[in-house]
Specification:
This protein has 2 domains: about 60 residues, Homeodomain-like (Arc Repressor Mutant, subunit A, Orthogonal Bundle); about 160 residues, Tetracycline Repressor, domain 2 (Orthogonal Bundle), CATH 1.10.357.10. Strands 1-2 form a two-stranded antiparallel sheet. The chain contains 10 helices and 2 strands; from the N terminus they run ααααααααααββ. By secondary structure, the protein is mainly alpha-helical.
Length: about 230
């Protein structure tokens, strides 16, 4: 009896601690998105969380520790959200191209992988933190690599292309489209993402005449010509 009572008390304490930690992270995210690291007010974040300073420092020893936790938490949550939403598609190739459309919609709402760019850029100036805070884009690339590999296994993507390189090109194109749209402020971000998707689809789909021939050493040779194309 006493053992069960202590166990329930421990579980309740753990739940309260997790709720408090979540309250701090939820209060910190919009502050870091808006202000970046240096300009974000820790006192305002603590006040918004509803905790005391003592309660805050029980969970996070410093503002830097909080910022790193926000980056990691945000990364995990948006990737999980995207994975959950694209899981409705049976084919890997459909999931592959549904993901950037979904991320683009999140980005327009101020969410997604680019939401914390200001914070990440500031933290990455510290060489000791660079690898940790830049892990977001690595995870993004790794996730897209898995999608390309799965689509390749289905036969929907050319087998002569490396999934990891395709992922780097796709993620780089997404970031570039977002940067251009932010600079031009023309409201055409979603149009650019659709154009990027079309380009990647044309470059990677099988049977379009874009496959590379291999020379006698197995190295990429000249581009092949579609047998059904005029003059072939």
């Amino acid at each position: 009896m006493a053992t069960r009572t202590r166990q329930r008390a421990g579980e309740a304490s753990s739940e309260r601690g997790e709720r408090a930690r979540r309250a701090i992270l939820d209060a910190a995210l919009p502050a870091f998105v808006r202000d970046g690291y240096a300009a974000a007010s820790l006192n305002q974040i603590i006040a918004a969380s509803g905790l005391t300073k003592g309660g805050f420092y029980f969970h996070f020893p410093s503002k830097q520790a909080l910022a790193l936790a926000v980056v990691a938490d945000h990364q995990q949550r948006w990737i999980s959200r995207v994975d959950d939403e694209i899981s409705q598609y049976d084919k890997a190739v459909d999931r592959l191209f549904a993901a950037p459309r979904l991320i683009a919609r999140y980005a327009r709402q101020g969410d997604g992988p680019a939401a914390l760019n200001k914070l990440v850029e500031e933290l990455a100036r510290d060489p000791e933190l660079r690898d940790e805070v830049c892990g977001t884009i690595r995870v993004w690339i790794d996730t897209v690599t898995e999608h390309f590999a799965a689509a390749q296994a289905e036969g929907a993507v050319r087998a002569d292309l490396a999934p990891a390189m395709l992922a780097q090109v796709a993620v780089g194109g997404f970031i570039g489209a977002q940067t251009i749209s932010e600079q031009l402020r023309d409201g055409r971000f979603l149009d650019r993402i659709e154009a990027l998707i079309q380009v990647v689809q044309l470059a990677t789909q099988k049977g379009t005449g874009h496959e590379l021939r291999r020379d006698h050493r197995g190295q990429p040779g000249r581009r092949s010509i579609d047998r059904d194309a005029p003059g072939a």
